Amino acid sequence: MTGRFGWRMWAVFAALAVLPTFPFMTGYRLNLAFDALLFGIVAMSLDLLMGYTGLVSFGHAAFLGLGAYSTAILLERGVRSLWLCLGAAVLVVGLYALLVGYFATTRRGIYFALLTLIFAEVVYTFFRYTMAFGGSDGIQGLEAAWVLPGVPASAIDSPLKNYYLVLAVLFLTYLACRTLVDSHFGKVLIAIRENEDRARFLGYNVRRYKLAVCVISGLLAGLAGAIYPIRLANATPDLLLWTVSGEAIVMVMIGGIGTLVGPIVGGAFFIVLQEEVSTYAPKIYQAIGLSADKGVGLHFLIIGVILVLIVIFMPKGLLGALRPARRREPRLAAPAPAGGGK
Question: Using CB atoms within 10 A as the burial measure, which of 20, 258, 283, 295 is most buried?
Fold first, then answer.
């Protein structure tokens, strides 16, 4: 692996691989780790758009939700192969990402963000009110997926197996993203972020690059969504809410935009923060003399204050604050003319 985080990331993934062997990693903590790593994947996929291309998407939850529903629909109908579930998610999310990207990339800035939001709201409304997919309750009570079709012993039916599944997806996703951003394609994305008009003037088909990164980003988020029902045994319209997209943006920002690793940390930090604050909220209510029903929103306030403090004192994010000053980006050469310039 090349790039700025080479050997460090190998060490981090090795540590994550042996983490379940520690006594404190109970089933509850393994499930929490699953959620943390899964949303780290979602945040990292969004970072390709935000951090490297300068595109803000308010509809990323649609990719996550469509991936989850693709798996849930197959499992509900007795198709328990993990690979078929992942393949279905890639197909469905890829087609949707291509559709959204085709229209959204015709616009810039806030208009791009609004178009992604509008498409996501259409998808949310469809699953929210279509009873064939469970309506507001979603699809519940799913069976475990099998790694080897027809072999029950290969079922992913324990917190430990779920953890290693999401870790493997995270590892492969990081390798793909790191390779992408270190390639010429990634340099063009950075050029588009810095000055879209100049990249176009150099002869690059800017819209084609933006469409490609939209599809890639959506596919990665969709893969995360595809393994979501394997642990939770359900898929609900809540995954498609615009608030989930907003949370993904927050994860990218607090982790460190344009770093790939930062959004993983940001996603994990956000999920663990939510869980821990919610767990200790009753004690906080009791300490300040509030009943649980009257202080029901207090933990959201606590989370909000913590996030605001991070934004104020660490504007580059948890990992971005540790990065050296950004070096001048290398000059991007114009693409070679067709036919080798002859």
Answer: 258
